């Protein structure tokens, strides 16, 4: 039993190491290819895929304990995200601090009567910003059947992005 657990752990560590090495190899190959001339429109996204984004997750002012838990869960969705206690800071102060620390995206979660109901995602430094309304939020803390959340990077599949914005 212990041997199987040890072998399983070694296998998972080996796979994680292989994934890290392949990601670094892809980034290393991509960097020289992107050093060519590009328009000012694409400059912001020039290093997309080479440098990992820095995402900051925070809450509205004076959050309830339920909103704090939701912010923790949102942090788990974005790989490499950080959660910050907002305190009494205003949004413009948060944005300036994020820009100074090379944060690429700011996510703010809102609540009404201790129910998370809003999500603002802002791409820094020049936007765009999207506001999402959330309905019937069920957190993993609410359901005992959910185990611990995996911290593996998500696999995203995008199809049919045929517009000019989608091709960018």
TrEMBL record:
Which residue range or ranges hold the Brix domain? 53-168
UniProt-listed GO biological process terms? ribosomal small subunit biogenesis; rRNA processing
Protein's UniProt keywords contain Transmembrane: no
Residue ranges, annotated region (Disordered)? 16-35
Output the Gene Ontology cellular-component terms.
Mpp10 complex; nucleoplasm; small-subunit processome
Keywords from UniProt, A to Z, are: Ribonucleoprotein, Ribosome biogenesis, rRNA processing
Q: Where in the cell is it found?
A: Nucleus, Nucleolus
Functional description taken from the UniProt entry: Component of the 60-80S U3 small nucleolar ribonucleoprotein (U3 snoRNP). Required for the early cleavages during pre-18S ribosomal RNA processing. Part of the small subunit (SSU) processome, first precursor of the small eukaryotic ribosomal subunit. During the assembly of the SSU processome in the nucleolus, many ribosome biogenesis factors, an RNA chaperone and ribosomal proteins associate with the nascent pre-rRNA and work in concert to generate RNA folding, modifications, rearrangements and cleavage as well as targeted degradation of pre-ribosomal RNA by the RNA exosome.
This one is known as U3 small nucleolar ribonucleoprotein IMP4
What is the source species? Answer: Clarias magur
User: Gene behind this chain?
Assistant: imp4
